[in-house]
Write a sequence for this structure.
């Protein structure tokens, strides 16, 4: 049985880390959703140089470790006089990395809507923006939500790299608590529970949406 | 920035040594993960009572934890209950725990993707359940599992860099060691290290895509 006094005595630190983890994940999600959407549009835009930029970005950042991006921002940028603190560098790295995956999810979502629908909407007098807003996006979003949810779960898990940059997230607090109390096993068990409190409901939700989506098709 | 100094022969050799450790740890982990995952996946697919529920809970927990936490836990917390291992072993164990839960889901959904009618057909033509699984379901499912497993291997290669926290002498760690000597090395070394990861992963991702096209 884990020693619950570890949890009660260090409650403030756990909660602080918990909120920093949620905070960075939310900023990460919003940031990478915006950047990911732009990249997805770049990839399907009818203008070749945009396609290349989108493809290069996605193929590069999907295939290198998140940690190398984080270290680069944290330790290499100061050598060219751009100083980021651990939280900024970590969150920015999460955005740069995750947006490559989100871009692919969004692109797949938009491409999965048959072209005939755009043509039909356009010929019944809707403008391009109206077609996107009322016809394409409502259908695409339904397809994109489950993969987005999965990316959010990954974001929450990946946000633990903030620990390596000493940015005060859940894992980092656990590290502090264990060096202070000389207990590691129980400290990490509790920190695992805090992560599961965030990720298990999310993955249950994603599973539910995936099943519903599969049925509606 | 000092590219010439950063890319000295000694440094290049040191980075390559690190990269071989990365590859070695990743390859051992993927093989171990596949074996464990096949076991877990088949038990969950055949719905063996109790065992399959226990595995379902474990997989769901492990999948939803950060890998970094599992690495920390394996190396720093397990010795507290008397399980001690070397850095490399801890990295392999942590990666295997994490990846086998991921791959077991791939195997389970691969098996589930084979239509039930095939099992019925196999059974009614006189094969036993095990024979049907072995000769009919597995060979087809395996082909569908290969692309996602290759993608998972890409993640694994990237995730090996997290073992930097327990000072495993892999690529990321060795890059950091060189960077600590001279600030002018940092950018060139990161560029080269990123390129090494990228070259292998990009090649693998192309292979995965080719295989996907072939199977679909």
């Amino acid at each position: 049985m884990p020693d619950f006094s570890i949890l009660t005595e260090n409650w403030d630190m756990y909660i602080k880390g918990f909120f920093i983890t949620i905070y960075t994940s939310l900023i990460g999600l919003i940031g990478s959703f915006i950047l990911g959407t732009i990249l997805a549009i770049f990839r399907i835009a009818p203008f070749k140089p945009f396609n290349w930029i989108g493809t290069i970005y996605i193929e590069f950042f999907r295939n290198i470790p998140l940690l190398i991006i984080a270290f680069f921002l944290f330790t290499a940028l100061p050598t060219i006089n751009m100083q980021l603190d651990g939280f900024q560098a970590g969150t920015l790295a999460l955005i740069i990395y995750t947006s490559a995956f989100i871009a692919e999810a969004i692109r797949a979502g938009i491409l999965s809507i048959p072209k005939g629908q755009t043509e039909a909407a356009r010929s019944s007098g809707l403008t391009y923006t109206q077609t996107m807003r009322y016809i394409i996006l409502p259908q695409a979003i339904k397809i994109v939500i489950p993969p987005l949810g999965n990316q959010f779960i990954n974001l929450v898990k990946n946000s633990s790299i903030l620990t390596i940059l000493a940015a005060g997230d859940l894992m980092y607090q656990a590290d502090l608590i264990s060096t202070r109390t000389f207990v590691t096993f129980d400290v990490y068990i509790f920190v695992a529970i805090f992560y599961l409190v965030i990720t298990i409901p999310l993955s249950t939700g994603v599973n539910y949406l995936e099943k519903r989506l599969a049925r509606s098709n | 920035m000092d590219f010439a100094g950063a890319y000295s022969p000694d440094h290049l050799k040191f980075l390559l040594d690190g990269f071989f450790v990365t590859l070695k740890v990743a390859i051992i982990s993927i093989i171990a993960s596949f074996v464990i995952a096949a076991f877990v996946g088949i038990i969950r697919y055949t719905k063996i009572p109790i065992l399959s529920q226990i595995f379902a809970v474990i997989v769901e927990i492990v999948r939803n934890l950060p890998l970094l936490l599992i690495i920390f836990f394996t190396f720093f917390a397990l010795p507290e209950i008397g399980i001690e291992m070397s850095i490399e072993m801890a990295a392999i164990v942590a990666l295997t725990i994490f990846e086998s839960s991921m791959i077991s889901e791939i195997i389970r959904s691969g098996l589930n993707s084979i239509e039930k009618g095939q099992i019925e057909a196999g059974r009614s033509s006189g094969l036993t359940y095990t024979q049907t699984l072995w000769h009919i379901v597995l060979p087809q499912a395996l082909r569908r599992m290969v692309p996602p497993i290759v993608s998972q291997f890409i993640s694994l290669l990237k995730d090996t860099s997290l073992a930097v926290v327990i000072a495993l002498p892999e690529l990321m760690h060795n890059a950091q060691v060189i960077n600590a000597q001279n600030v002018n090395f940092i950018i060139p070394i990161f560029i080269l290290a990123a390129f090494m990861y990228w070259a292998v992963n990009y090649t693998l991702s192309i292979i995965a895509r080719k295989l996907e096209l072939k199977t679909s």
Remarks:
- The mean pLDDT of chain A is 91.
- DSSP finds nine helices and no strands in chain A.
